[in-house]
Amino acid sequence: MSKIYTNKLHPGVTFPKVALSLMSGEQRILGKPQNGLDWQLVLFYRGQHCPLCTKYLNLLQTYKNKLVEIGVDIIAVSGDSKTQLESHLEKVQVDYPIAYGLTVEQMKTFGLYISDPRSEQETDHPFAEPGLFVVNSDGDIQVVDISNNPFVRPELEALINGLRWIRNPDNNYPIRGMHSF
């Protein structure tokens, strides 16, 4: 197998403006916070076929209020179809928005790792492996975590404590990891 290289988004760069659909039919621009909040956590997940994704989405719900307290909005995203998301919502008990229909080209735009399904029973399309971005009020990437498998994801309590610290103006904490070359 030949080596394939991917382009990754780096901390401090402007988060790409991509609009995706919610179940309601509303379009949502990723990285554009809602509800009077000024930062946004954008969570890319594999899709309804992944039980670890379902667990993580539900766990994120339990931290939603802590994120809101520090001004961070949430949106989750997958390459699933509307029908697949509708089915998944039977297992996902969240009240933050979930967008669907992320294309392979859009996955590449965000620098996500992409996998093919192991069988038709798993899913019917290539899907993004997990990725998490926190976009600041300037629209720039403050925090990035990209994984090539479902077993490695940020520990949410540590992430939220870190974001609380970063957002405290007394700490004057810059975007880290700016020298990515």
Automatic annotation (TrEMBL):
Name of the protein this chain belongs to: Thioredoxin domain-containing protein
Family annotation (InterPro entries): AhpC/TSA, Thioredoxin-like_sf, Thioredoxin_domain
Signal peptide: none
Stored PROSITE patterns: THIOREDOXIN_2
Alphabetical list of Pfam families matching this protein: AhpC-TSA
Domain Thioredoxin positions: 9-165
One GO molecular-function entry: antioxidant activity
Domain of life the protein comes from: Bacteria
